[in-house]
Amino acid sequence: MKKKELVEIIRLVVKSEVKKAVKSALTEAKKQPEVPISLNEALNQTRDGGDWKSMGTFDSKDAKASFAAMQGGGANPGMNTLLANPAVQKDESLEKAFTRDYSQLIKAMKK
Q1: CB-CB contact of 20 with 28 (8 Å)
Q2: Which has the closest alpha carbon to 84: 60, 62, 66, 68?
Q3: With left for phi above 0 and alpha for psi between -120 and 50, is residue 72 left, alpha or beta?
Q4: Nearby residues of 67 by Cβ (< 8 Å), 6 or more positions away
Q5: What are phi and psi of 2, to 5 degrees?
Q6: 56 backbone φψ class: left, alpha, beta (φ>0; ψ -120 to 50)
Q7: How does DSSP assign the chain, residue by residue?
Q8: Cβ-proximal residues to 103 (8 Å cutoff; 6+ apart), any chain
Q9: Which of 83, 60, 81, 85 is nearest to 69 (CA)?
Q10: Contact between 71 and 81 (Cβ < 8 Å)
Q11: What is the pLDDT along the chain (111 residues), one digit of tens a residue?
């Protein structure tokens, strides 16, 4: 028996065995009907599962404290540090640019 013949025999045997295994797996999968669950059942399963409990809690107090910390408020979330210490220093030219009436300019541009 040559090497090529042996390889061909092995290929045929493996092919037939794989075909049998796939066919039996498909017929077994078709026998088990999938039952869709309702939204309430899914939520109940999530509630009863314990994995999400390790995440801790997060309420409005935590959100306010986190937001204040992002603004540099530290421990006192009621203190508005952005208004107390503005990032842009007061400049008369900027104030003039922001408070100027641009309506005449817009009318001229539309012509």
Answers
A1: no
A2: 68
A3: left
A4: 77
A5: -90, 165
A6: left
A7: --HHHHHHHHHHHHHHHHHHHHHHHHHHHHHS---PPPHHHHHHHHHHSSGGGGG----HHHHHHHHHHHTT-TT-TT--HHHHS-SS---HHHHHHHHS--HHHHHHHH-
A8: none
A9: 81
A10: yes
A11: 788 899 999 999 999 999 999 999 988 888 877 778 888 888 888 888 877 777 777 788 888 888 888 887 655 544 555 555 556 567 788 788 888 888 888 888 888
Q: Is 65 exposed, middle or buried (0-12, 13-18, 19+ CB in 10 A)?
A: middle
Q: Which residues does 71 contact at the CB level (< 8 Å), separation at least 6?
A: 80, 81, 82
pTM confidence score:
0.30
Question: What are the tokens at 110?
Answer: 């539309």
Q: Which amino acid is at 15?
A: K
